[in-house]
Amino acid sequence: MRALLVVNPRATSTTPAGRDVLAHALASELKLDVLQTAYRGHAAEATAEAVAAGIELVVALGGDGTVNEVVNGLVRHRTRADGSGIDVTPADAETPALAVVPGGSANVFARALGMPRDPVEATGAILAALEARRSRLVGLGRADDRWFTFNAGLGWDADVVAAVERARADGREASPGRYFRTAFSEYVRQRRNPPSMTVEIPGAAPVEDVRMAFVSNTDPWTYLNGRAVRTNPGASFSGGLALFALRHLGLPTIAHALSHLLAREGNPHGRNVLRQDAVPLVRIRSAEPLALQLDGDHLGSRTDVEFVSVPDVLRVVV
């Protein structure tokens, strides 16, 4: 089997020596090429080129940002733009597949798939799955022309992502503590001047004056220092998208929501909570531009975003 190993050399939980060991293990069973990413978007470009050249498997070694780029590269060759939007052909047994070796700090997508958190164990699991010819189809979310695997957000969480990205560009570590401090400072800022969003779901009346909105493609939404953050415990890769939103950013509302988001079983609810699982589409509009993030990647600002669920679009070796 022809395979491409896409490596993010800045991945936080593997060393250069460890990456060499993993590459050697994969090369013992696969006809393997190795690419080390050098810039933002490199993984997506290289994956798309490899798929066009007939590659059968792409292994992503890195965090969720690397996985997201590889996924976008994998799906790109099956999408087409026409007068009604962007269409994509479903994945099948012959579709080039994805395998994930977790190498970041959160690794939400890999953990949602049930992959081992240890990179060596994950590599062994991938080789075992390949030997057994075992894979599964998963659905993805799409916003604009970009695919996401596990979560998206407009407003507060996207502002946090953008601030942490700036800190990383300055050479500072993207640690759980930095995320927490940044989230608090962004909360204080938005509490003084809260955004106003309108949320639309098919078959329901629009909800106005929403202050925060998260869209999920699976559960959990993310991890905070190993603890699952669960906005929509019923979300799954096969069940459409899930919405979690707050109508108010007051401290009692935030404290109440966090107590549920960080609970083992999740199930957030309350009079200021707007929550819906298994929807095909979520549209969020705002009069002022708000930051947008997909899978923890800041994509700039938007005033109108349509999040769409696309089932069975990705084949994953697990």
Number of structurally distinct domains: 2
Task: Enumerate the spans where pLDDT stays under 50 for 5 or more consecutive residues.
Answer: none
Strand content: 35-45%
Supply the number of helical segments: 8
| Measured distance between first and last alpha carbons | 16 Å
Largest sheet: 10 strands, antiparallel
Mean pLDDT value: 92
Q: How helical, in percent, are the residues?
A: 25-40%
Q: CATH architecture of the largest domain, please?
A: Sandwich
The CATH topology label of the largest domain is Tumour Suppressor Smad4
Helix/strand-derived category reads alpha+beta
How many beta strands in the DSSP annotation?
A: 18
CATH class of the largest domain: Mainly Beta
H/E element sequence: EHEHEHEEEHHEEEHHEEEEEEHEEE
Q: What sort of overall outline do the alpha carbons produce when their principal axes are compared? A: globular
Radius of gyration: 19 Å
